[in-house]
Write a structure and sequence with these properties.
This protein has about 210 residues and is α/β, with parallel strands linked by helices. The chain has helices spanning about 20-35, 40-50, 65-75, 105, 125-130, 150-160, 165-175, 185-190; strands at about 55-60, 80-85, 95-100, 115-120, 140-145, 195-200, 205-210.
Length: about 210
């Protein structure tokens, strides 16, 4: 695996929503996120920093809206908004807002005070992330869970290959190669002046929570 970041186009990004391979890949992602404990980690961080969420939470790259639905369980009165290029998921709770738009365009007008993202930021180059940086200033809390770029997660991915579809077999190592090592994500996003807590989880994720006092 390359030491530096390598960003390759992921197959799921180019498949129609109702393509059988895309549907299989989304099922794979649900299982992988559950195995990695990503949604549980985000909700735990947000419960710890709930005072910074009063103006709402926006999830970037919301996909099927599963994280938003998960957060609704813990925060029934806080406004939640999912942002994705895909249309609103048909089974998404009506109390969750949805914006079908580019992440960067949406962040320019969002009024939320907290931002969450699971396995989305690694799609962007360092240059793109630097343009995202000033759009984050309006938030008081950021929770991101991204692929950890290391040999161990790649080895874990190999063990899953017999159990996932062809799209996931391609996209999983591509995601890891585009992931982050400790210290990179906060640097690329220019989170100067933020309090930052970063960790790696042995199930394969790099986790960052940043907050303002």
């Amino acid at each position: 695996m390359a030491i530096g970041r390598v960003i390759r186009r992921e197959m799921l990004d180019d498949l129609p929503a109702h393509d059988p391979e895309a549907m299989r890949s989304r099922r794979d992602l649900r299982v992988i996120n559950a195995l990695m404990g990503n949604f549980t980690w985000v909700s735990r961080q947000m419960r710890s920093f709930s005072s910074r969420m009063n103006e709402g939470v926006v999830e970037i790259g919301a996909g099927e809206g599963l994280l938003c639905q998960h957060l609704r369980t813990f925060f029934p009165t806080i406004p939640l908004t999912g942002v994705d290029l895909a249309p609103r998921p048909p089974n998404l709770s009506q109390c969750i807002e949805w914006e079908q738009d580019d992440i960067f365009a949406s962040l320019q007008r969002t009024q939320a005070s907290a931002l969450a993202g699971v396995m989305i930021v690694h799609h962007f180059s360092e240059e793109a992330l630097s343009t995202m940086a000033p759009l984050l200033d309006r938030f008081r809390l950021i929770c991101l869970c991204e692929p950890w770029r290391a040999i161990w997660p790649m080895a874990l991915g190999q063990t899953l290959k017999p159990f996932v579809g062809s799209v996931t077999r391609h996209d999983m190592p591509a995601s890891i190669e585009a992931g982050f090592r400790p210290g990179e994500l906060s640097r690329f996003l220019n989170l100067h002046g933020w309090k930052i807590r970063e960790s790696v989880d042995l199930r394969g994720s790099l986790r960052l929570v940043a907050w303002k006092e």
